[in-house]
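## tool: complex_structure
## caller: assistant
## args:
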Amino acid sequence: MSIRTRFAPSPTGLLHIGGVRTALFCWLYARRHGGTFILRVEDTDRERSTPEAVQVILDGMQWLGLDADEGPFYQSRRYPRYREVIQQWLGEGKAYHCYCSKEELEAMRTAQLARKEKPRYDGRCRDRNEPREGVTPVVRFKNPADGAVIVDDAVHGKVVFQNVELDDLIIERSDGNPTYNFCVVVDDYDMKVSHVIRGDDHLNNTPRQMNMLRAMGVEPPVYAHLPMILGPDGTKLSKRHGAVSVLYYREEGYLPEALLNYLARLGWSHGDQEIFSLDEMTALFDIADVNKSASAINPDKLAWINQQHLMRLPPSQIAPELRWQLERLGIAVGESAPLEAVIEAQRERSKTLKEMAAASRFFFEAPAAYEDKSARKHLTAETAPVLEQTRASLAKLTEWTAAAIHGAIQALAEAGGLGLGKVAQPVRVAVSGGSVSPPIDQTLAILGREQTLERIDRAIEFARR
RNA sequence: GCUCCCAUCGUCUAGAGGCCUAGGACACAGCCCUCUCAAGGCUGGUACGAGGGUUCGAAUCCCUCUGGGAGCGCCA
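## result:
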């Protein structure tokens, strides 16, 4: 049997972290087994679905690299097919028209609640099929009245639902539009989905869907219900937690690999391993290793994982994202900018690319001003001579490499009986404007001789003022 | 209210009856390294929700409770 998974978001809100994790597991499972990953947009709610939200989903998936083999399919374009199935079921007696008014339904519900019962449609229109004056009917699926449905879930194990707990759900609204649970069934059937991997908030929908699938004459696919992802405070994920859309993580300077790695570790594990490349995840992922309990997002750990990926990925792969971040800060990055060297110098001191960009500004622009505290400590009348000696020594270097620069600075320190820091810190402030930068030799090597000398000159002037 | 799901350090997790005086990771603290900041290394504290069983033996199996969550819509 060929493996076919699908990610089926509805474009009503934003593509958030929970949705991405679901998409990732579907994608991983398909890739792992050489199967097919389908993207399906569930936009049957015409009131709340928006083209913008669809675009956010598409953009997000693309940024993450979760490429679909089939789709995107849009449910809104499949209405003829849904009608066809409904007509067929009506003809076969698997579905029926219901003429109950919303008021009638509401009264039924409140009465049941008052009796401490679970609110459910009692099926009164099942055998009462005569039209009612002025009422456009809905269509309901005739759910089995007794027996049980067993969901043999890949992560939860066997879950039993009694059919009496279920009711005859509406599959076509009075306005003629099909409803969610029904569309899912027709789509999963038509698209030959073999594994339905989704959030466990859908576990309760599953028996209904299985009953409908059986009405279509097929055995249901394998189901795997993933535990929920919660906000850092352990409550349901919401805008309040800042994670509006996946693209927000790009803006904040996270790598797709890192975000995916982090998300994979929420609910899934492979022994003690924390860092996974996409290829490793693909090779190792298995639904059997998914756990059942909800998990809270931990921003600190996400940041740590992001840095781990920054430190492992080839700089050439990171460079375009750093360039983007720099440009967002209004920094003019030339075509020939030494981005890869900057990445190598900065990545072990940056959690995100946004941080890295901010800390790297001085590589592209001379500092506009010196950080007050650093200047007062390191650009003074006492340090001016050190700066002058350093400048002279650096100017004489025959080759401009980190090793040569290091040698020169070390020699100066030794000659003056100073610690390396006494020489390096003033230079650091001179070239970067502050007291934090990568190792001074590496920093100057990237900066180039011209910029270095120019900035030291300016700093000497400042120190002597 | 009813149905269903879940339950190991603050957080993410390992653990599928003895390997557990419960391991790893993030975060936190201390130390080491050190030209700054980091990265890295070492050390430390903190967890099996409660109560009953089953068993020679339970974090692991069963039951009850408690706590959290989801669903019960002409939303998805």
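## assistant note: Residues 17-32 of chain A form the longest helix (16 residues). The first strand of chain A starts at residue 4 and ends at 7. Handing back to user.
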